[in-house]
Amino acid sequence: MYKDLPNEIYEKFDKMTDEAYELFVNKQYEKSFETYKECLNLIPEPKNDYGDSSNIIEWMVENYLKIQDYPNATYWVEKLGNYLKNKNILGDWEFLKGKVYFESGNLKKSLENFKKAFDKAGGSVNIPNLVHNSRRKLSCLF
Q1: Residue 91 has pLDDT above 90, yes or no
Q2: Which residues, including other chains, have CB under 8 Å from residue 77's CB and lie 6 or more apart?
Q3: Residues 104, 105, 111, CA angle at the centre, nearest 5°?
Q4: Which of 19, 31, 39, 69 has its CA 20 to 30 A from that of 138?
Q5: In this structure, what DSSP letter does residue 131 have?
Q6: Which residues make Cβ contacts (< 8 Å) with residue 107, sequence separation at least 6?
Q7: Is 139 in a helix, a strand, or coil?
Q8: Which of 120, 114, 104 shows the shortest CA–CA distance to 139?
Q9: Which of 48, 25, 37, 26 is nearest to 75 (CA)?
Q10: Are 35 and 20 in contact (CB under 8 A)?
């Protein structure tokens, strides 16, 4: 279970995350990501005790994907594993990694992570039945 941020930190954190979002919407990307990183620095150690840490990183990953900054999306999605308590149970982290690797064009790593996510979710997948079509979308032929 994750801890809640202390009230005095949460108030500043909440205000800053809103600001980071608005900066991103207004295409002030660099300043937005700097603000998200400042939010992460507000969180006490150990940061993985607080779910807000992983939330910030997930928002950063999604926003890096939106602007097609794949090196930073990849860096932060890999770093995200250090902030998750449930990464060995749920497949959320692997799913997000699969998405990042897919968008960045690394289909092998994408498939590996999607398979891990699917397996952790209690399913199974037959990799040879996954095909890549010309529009960079995966089609499942189960």
Answers
A1: no
A2: 57, 61, 93, 96, 97, 100
A3: 105
A4: 69
A5: E
A6: 101, 132
A7: strand
A8: 114
A9: 37
A10: yes
Residue 22: half-sphere exposure toward Cβ, Cα within 13 Å: 6
Residue type, 129: N
Q: How far apart are CA 50 and CA 110, in angstroms?
A: 28
Asked if residues 76 and 61 have their Cβ atoms less than 8 Å apart, the reply is yes
pLDDT band for position 124 (cuts 50, 70, 90): low
Greater confidence (103 vs 88) lies with 103
Count helices and strands (H / E) in the chain: 6, 2
CA distance 96 to 91: 9
pTM, two decimal places: 0.83
69: tokens are 């900054």
